[in-house]
Every structure is written in C-alpha cells, then in structure tokens.
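Researcher: Sequence recovery benchmark, item below. Answer with residues only.
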C-alpha cells in the first residue's frame, strides 16, 4: 500500500548513518547561519534530529532543546551518544508534527537539516504550516535542501529553493539568507542550499 515513507531506509542504516552524521561538527554544518542563531539562551527545536549532533551542540550553548526524530533506532543512538546533554527527545514527524503541535511550546529557532527533501509536493505545504505554527514571534527557521541522486532505498525529492522560499512567504516567514555549499562528505554529485527565515517582517 503506497510508496516508501519519508523515513524509509533510516532504521536499517542507523549505525552507518550515525558514523556519517557524527563525522562532521555542528559548526561545520551550520557555518553559514551561526550568526543568525539566538545569541542568548532560548528554546530550539531540531526536526529530524538524527543522532542529536546538532541538538547536543545547541544544548551545550545553553539553549533548551527539543529533538524530534521519528526513527526509533536513531533516537536510541542519539540518547546514548549524547547522554547528559539535557536534550529532550520526542517521537514526532513532519508533515504534521502532531505531538509538538498539540503542546504550547513555541521556539526561538527551528532547524531542519537534510530533512525537507524527504517530503512530497503534497506534504510540503502542511509541513511548512506546522513549522510556522511552532515558531515564536520573530523566531527563525533554518532549513537545508539536498540536490543530487537519491540513495537506494530512500525517498527523496529534488525541491527547489524558489518553491521553498515562496511556501515560507505564504506562511508569514521572511527570507533572511539563501546560499549554497558543496557536500561536506565529499560527494561531488551532491550539493546543498541553505535557507534561513524569520517569523514576521525582518
């Protein structure tokens, strides 16, 4: 029934993916947007948190961090690798983020690192709606788009930056930054777009 889900292939490859995720640092991955992250301790949501590399780094900076990760195996690895970090793990997923959406928390920053390309054209509008609803006034959304061949067993879509910027705009999110970068793992056929948005006029 239906095709693969947005998390297809991640549970089976969790151990291998953990090595890949943890091989690069939070600062390397987010160097283009570090100056836009909250300067003082705030509330941060990491959607599709994987092994918690970014969530733990943000918690170490003094932020209160929620890591949303729907893959059980990755959550288990993340809790083990970053035990004592203070990160609060949640089993929740786009497009709806129903658990987080049902709560009252609003976040100063929301990160989606290598996540958005897993959502189909029909899933992306409600996903952006859910993300915008979780942002505090003036909160910021940080998002990366992967461009390149799809690994076997995964579900990915080549999402354009223009579509993503327009989708965010219709939800009241203003573009703060748009740039590109090469793949940090040396894959010459993969490149990334880095986007940052603000909830409300800049």
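Model:
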């Amino acid at each position: 029934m239906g095709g693969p889900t947005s998390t297809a292939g991640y549970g089976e490859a969790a151990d291998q993916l953990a090595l890949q995720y943890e091989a690069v640092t939070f600062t390397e991955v987010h160097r283009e947007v570090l100056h836009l992250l909250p300067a003082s301790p705030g509330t941060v949501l990491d959607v599709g948190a994987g092994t918690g590399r970014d969530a733990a780094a943000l918690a170490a900076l003094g932020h209160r961090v929620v890591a949303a990760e729907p893959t059980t195996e990755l959550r288990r690895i993340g809790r083990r690798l970053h035990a004592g970090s203070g990160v609060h793990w949640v089993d929740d997923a786009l497009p709806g983020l129903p658990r987080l959406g049902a709560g009252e928390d609003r976040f100063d920053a929301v990160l989606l690192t290598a996540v958005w390309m897993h959502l189909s054209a029909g899933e992306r509008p409600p996903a952006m709606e859910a993300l915008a609803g979780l942002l505090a006034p003036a909160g910021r959304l940080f998002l990366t788009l992967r461009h390149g061949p799809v690994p076997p067993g995964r579900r990915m879509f080549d999402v354009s930056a223009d579509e993503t910027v327009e989708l965010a705009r219709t939800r009241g999110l203003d573009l703060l930054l748009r740039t590109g970068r090469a793949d940090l793992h040396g894959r010459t056929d993969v490149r990334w777009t880095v986007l940052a948005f603000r909830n409300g006029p800049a």
